[in-house]
Structures are given as C-alpha cells and as structure tokens.
Amino acid sequence: MGAGTTFSLALPSEAHTRALAGAVATIALPGMEIHLTGDLAAGKTAFARGFLHALGHRGAVKSPTFTLVESYDLAPGGHALSVHHFDLYRLTDPEELHYLGFEDYRRPDAIALIEWPSRGAGLLLPSIAVELSITGLESRLARVELLAADAVARAADFRNLVMKIK
Questions:
Q1: Tens digits of per-residue pLDDT, 29-55?
Q2: For the segment 79-109, what is each residue's pLDDT rounded down to a tens digit?
Q3: Do 7 and 154 touch, CB atoms closer than 8 A?
Q4: pTM greater than 0.70
Q5: Could you say which architecture CATH assigns to the domain 5-163?
Q6: pLDDT, tens digit, for every residue of 105-141?
Q7: In whole numbers, what is the pLDDT of the chain averaged over residues?
Q8: Cβ distance 1 to 36 under 8 Å?
Q9: Residues 51, 75, 132, CA angle at the centre, nearest 5°?
Q10: pLDDT value for 3
C-alpha cells in the first residue's frame, strides 16, 4: 500500500468492522479516495455500510457489484457531501473507468469509496487504504494506511478513535 501511517486492528465481528468504518469516516475529507481491498466476503461492503451510516445515511446500502457505483447525497454536520461507492470487481481493464465517467465523480465535495481498486490500477489516487483479511467465520484483520497528507495529519485523531473500538 505504499508509505504512510499504518494501523492494524483485529475485528471480531461485523459490528467492529462498522465501527472501524465510522472512525475512517470521521477523518475522511471531501476529495479523498478510500480504497477497500480484501477477498470476496472479507467485509468491504459491511465497511461501506458503516462508513455511510457514520456520515448520516439512514437507508439501505446496496453493493454496487452490478451497477458499479451507488451515490449518496449526505449532509454531515450540515455540510453537503456526496459519497460515491464503487465496486470495480467487474472491470477487466483500468481504462474502463473512463467509460464509467469516473472523473465526473472525482470532485472536491465528494468522497470516493472504492472496492477492488486494483481493477483501476494506475488511474486511482488513494488517500486512505483499508485492507480486510478473513481470520475466522466473522472475524477480520484490518490494516488501515493513511496515505494523503490530509489523512496523515489526522493520524492522532484516528488512533484515539481506533482505541475506543471494543
């Protein structure tokens, strides 16, 4: 995942995955890309659900496996914010991002939450990278790397939030 500030955390349940997502949502800023990696069923969509709920979304969160992107218009703290949840699993070539209109989603008032970012290799710019590994039936190991300067600057806040996950 490159150079940055890295955190590792055991997640005994999906609730812990959602709590971690809430911590990431707290430090995420508009304009950031958050990359989610892990095997099938590792909890990427559960993470996305926790991330969106932490920012105030109250409805269902669908996996964008077939639609490739689901967009959510939110207003955390009274400020307009769009979150675009991508699932790039079905892409066969990174150039397909152009046909998807990815650049139209890359805006200073939006966060891109991207599952399977390796399918867009060379065209994506991760601000925060989250890797989820299956360690048991419901348990996961998370590795979170803060890569962008704005994310690294919030590392102490993130560390404090992660320490509260029980």
A1: 999 999 999 999 899 999 999 999 999
A2: 899 999 999 999 999 999 999 899 999 999 9
A3: no
A4: yes
A5: 3-Layer(aba) Sandwich (3.40)
A6: 999 999 999 999 999 999 999 999 999 999 999 999 9
A7: 93
A8: no
A9: 10
A10: 52
Give the CA angle between residues 39, 127, 78 to the nearest 5°: 105
Q: In the numeric block, which tokens belong to residue 3?
A: 């150079």
**Tokens, residue 29:** 């800023």
Q: Where are the domains of the chain?
A: 5-163
The three state secondary structure string of the chain is: CCCCEEEEEEECCHHHHHHHHHHHHHHCCCCCEEEEECCCCCCHHHHHHHHHHHCCCCCCCCCCCCCCEEEEEECHHHCCEEEEEEECCCCCCCCHHHHHCHHHHCCCCEEEEEECHHHHCCCCCCCEEEEEEECCCCCEEEEEEECCHHHHCCHHHHHHHHHCCC
